[in-house]
Batch of 3 targets.
Target 1
Amino acid sequence: MSELVAGRIIRHAERLKLSHLTDTAEQLCQRADDAQLGYREFLDLVLDEEVAVRESRRFTNALKLSGLPHRKSLDEFDFAFQPDLDPRKIKDLAALTFIDAKANVCLLGPPGVGKTMLAVGLAIAACQAGYSIYFTTLDDLVRNLSDAEATGRFRKKLQTYLKPALLVVDEVGYLPLSRAEANMVFQLVSRRYEHGSMIWTSNKSFSEMAQVFGDDALTTAILDRLLHHAEIITINGPSYRLKDRTLTAEKGDRH
Ligand code: ADP
Ligand code: MG
């Protein structure tokens, strides 16, 4: 390749923001020579690598901004530990059709059964598939919205929770909300209703939600929209956090 052409390819690639091609034009040509690639194969190689690099950068950046508390994937979930949970239900959800259907998922159950881990795993799968995601606990959500309200930025802040295709709201029901906070949750749920998916995790049953939102009518209004299109998974099983303690106790028992 003449110096002139080589330089122009890099300048054009840079201008078109094809960063991988900018960095590797010479090596790509060398590889095409070595493997005696045809024109189509070469174009395919160049575009394929550019897309792969771009996609992996998007995924990394999106995960960084997602608010996820960790990066454990669904593959790491030990279904054998939670025999009452049907793995097929999670696998069906991992196909992510609920996001296209703007439907919700509620993961209910006592502490330690893996609600947060499953929500995170589904969110990572969604992010990998190109959906925008955001993770928050309910407490952080209402605190952020209340702070924004106090400084006249409520509408803008609400957008953070409205924009993503999938919003995870973790730990619903740990603390009861004030009337104003419950109203914010209602606004969020009604604005996302049939527009975007949510995954809610909670240690409370739906019948206990009135204690969280403080008011029967408001609770009904929230649950009505949340549950109209929703998959509800209740995990009634042992706490994974206590797993090692249980094993140690069992070992101890045997002696
Ligand atoms: P919850 O949100 O229901 O309280 P978490 O998802 O936070 O529970 O799970 C508690 C801890 O145990 C986390 O570190 C999680 O990754 C792990 N964990 C829970 N269930 C499983 C499981 N079935 N397989 C592997 N790790 C699990
Ligand atoms: Mg949790």
Note: The domain at 74-234 is CATH 3.40.50.300 (Rossmann fold).
Target 2
Amino acid sequence: MKKVVFICLGNICRSPMAEAIFRDLVKQQNLEAAFTIDSAGTAGWHEGERPHKGTLAKLREHDISTEGMYSRPLTKEDSERFDYFICMDESNVENTRRILGGDKEVLRLLDLTTHTVKEVPDPYYTGDFEETYQLCLEGCTKLLEKLC
Ligand code: 4NP
């Protein structure tokens, strides 16, 4: 079982986008039994909320389910629950290391791609959910290749 958690700041825009896309890719390959997939935010400001309406609309456009997804904060206990900590930007990496403690391997999603820019832009500020969708799709595709 491979246990993957996607991490951003608020867990309403980028990491739910990546979680839903990765779930969908895993489902397409009939690999659901081999994975535990979740997402979390380094801040708990939106705890209990559904993903941002821009993320929901973009995923709906691509017929990708967001069922059962609600924002939650990353906690120290996640350190034991997951093996792969996949962040959207460098500040997420720093905050994740601080929250988890220890020496878990923490990656940025775009580290797996050939893009020179390794940070997934935050559509909470840019408003560009299509750009974030495309980058998450590319990163998640590479992540699935890496883990299979
Ligand atoms: P996310 O985006 O980290 O991709 O979920 C944000 C969501 C909420 C806020 C900032 C970024 N906020 O300031 O509430």
Note: The pocket of 4-nitrophenyl phosphate is lined by residues 8-14, 45, 122, 124 (CB under 6 Å).
Target 3
Amino acid sequence: MEHKKETHSFKTEVKQFMHLIINSLYSNREIFLRELISNASDAIDRLSFKAQTDAKLLEEGAEFKIKITPDKTARTLTLSDNGIGMTYEEVVENIGTIAKSGTAAFMQAIENAKNQNTLAPELIGQFGVGFYSAFIVADKITIVTKAAGETTATRWESTGDGEYTIEPAEKPSRGTDIILKLKPVEKDEQDFTEEWTLRQVVKKHSDFVNYPVVMDVERVETETSDDGKPILGPDGKPVKKPPVIQEETLNSMKAIWAKDKKDVTDEEYKDFYSHISHDWNPPLTWFHWKLEGVTEYNALLYIPSQAPFDLFMPERKHGAQLYCRRVFIMDDCKELIPSYLRFIKGVVDAPDLNLNISREILQQDALVRNIHKNLIKKILDALDQLPAEEFEKFYNEFGAVLKEGIHSDWANRDRLAKLARFKTTQSDGKWVSLTEYAARMKPDQNDIYYMTGDSLASIINSPHLEALKEKDFEVLLMTDPVDEFIIQAMPEFEKKKFKSAEKGDLDIDKVDETKKAAFSSLFEKIKSLLADQVKEVKPSSHLRDSVSCLSGDTYDASAYMEKLLKATGQTVPAVKRILELNVNHPVMEKIQSIFEKNQEDVALKDYSLLLYDLATVSEGGKIENPARFSRQIGELMAKALG
Ligand code: ADP
């Protein structure tokens, strides 16, 4: 496609974001270099992955590198990589917008940081805006990039003040040059055109980058005589040769996952984490394994300290990278780590892997399958062994994801059920494991009770729990959407059945048979009056203080499930529910006496509707006719108050 020079504005959120990161990261300016080197290294990774199926992409050569070129006079710093590069469209797409799906989360963060003019660094790392950090040190950035296999290049330029230009350009070779026009150096600040500064920053933050990060350095050697001794000049000092420029590699490229644990410092582990994850927070913890034997692999895996904003977005990438003998094979490797552990970031290096393996057949590869199985086991073992406090932090962030495994990974269902935690009617906001729950079940309690809903507040006071509370039976309060699915995948735990507190009979206290009989014709009447609303009217085994509630048959969808399905746009078959009435409540006795006097009394219809509305309100549902409800309540109050 033909393009000419165009000027665009940054999206508003980008402008706000740039302003914030420049202010927030000022004291940490050197990390811009790590971000740009990481981007360059990713770009090379992506090229080498793509070239596995399209060798033509490497026709310029496969000697990958990232080059840093400082220019003291022009005060520029150029970062060049010979990675995959970007097409015109990709530049428009990638630079100048915030990672698309993150916009909402990002706007929220801005909102929260509004009055501070700064953003906590731990928030910044989450939005994939590494590139913009270069505006901390640069007052103009130029990108010249050519995608591998393309003929035209693209030039992007911005002074970071809200606009950028984009136009076709010339570039002899594939890859990306990022040219920073550096701001003047203030007193005591690092000068990023200084060789020493650049060496130090690369060593500190990017040492393990998998490709050489090189820089031209001036070497001055001394003249030596044939026997290797320095030749001295008339002033008695060694005579120097004319300076030569040499390209020097600044990073050691040591794959830390291949090292021995004892040879890696915590700092190195953390730096490696920020390199692979683009997360600027330190990880919560990491696991470093070397497995030998039939299934041989090295793995270095991290648990982030914070859940990323896109954890539940379907397009989210997995954080596992696959290597073979330190050669990058692919990232986002779903075949290694199951979806319910998708928050884990890190590297798996399998020396015996077939290098030509394609993504499509990865899943069938016996070695990959063994590693997959083995990794799950090791990760679950490691989670089991986390100190309680760390486990809790982990669970707060990722528990809802981990639980998905109960539904999706049958082989490990029991282990995952043991790792799962729930809040309960008796846990006072704390997490309880099913093992703990089972251990403190009452002697006359046979089942594990649970109740689902969208917030603790809405279910903890639900009338369905009244009888259970009176019995002092603990009830699991399940508020994650996934809970509905896992409960179906896990009919029992340690031979104890799960029983919904809102569905079916609780089988704890039987309703008195004579009472039941006494109310039976009234209940028939109410059922006929509410034929449009409910499928049955029956005496309740749930209620103590409340007069009515709605319940389902054991196999009906719960109220929360229905809400969830509706929220995802699915059509929910209209299942009528059961109206449960409390035959020990004085209101029921009063209605009974009206009924006994005149079975056709019009008030019966009003009261029936009111009982139904009360049941709906008590579970946080929407009543059909709020105006009628409020009028009826008003009339009743007027009567009661005389
Ligand atoms: P992130 O790297 O976290 O996605 P950035 O804002 O740093 O966010 O970069 C945005 C996107 O621009 C990257 O995801 C990548 O697609 C593209 N990009 C950045 N630098 C390069 C590069 N050196 N070569 C190719 N593409 C790049």
Note: The chain has five domains: 6-212, 218-250, 256-392, 403-500, 513-641.
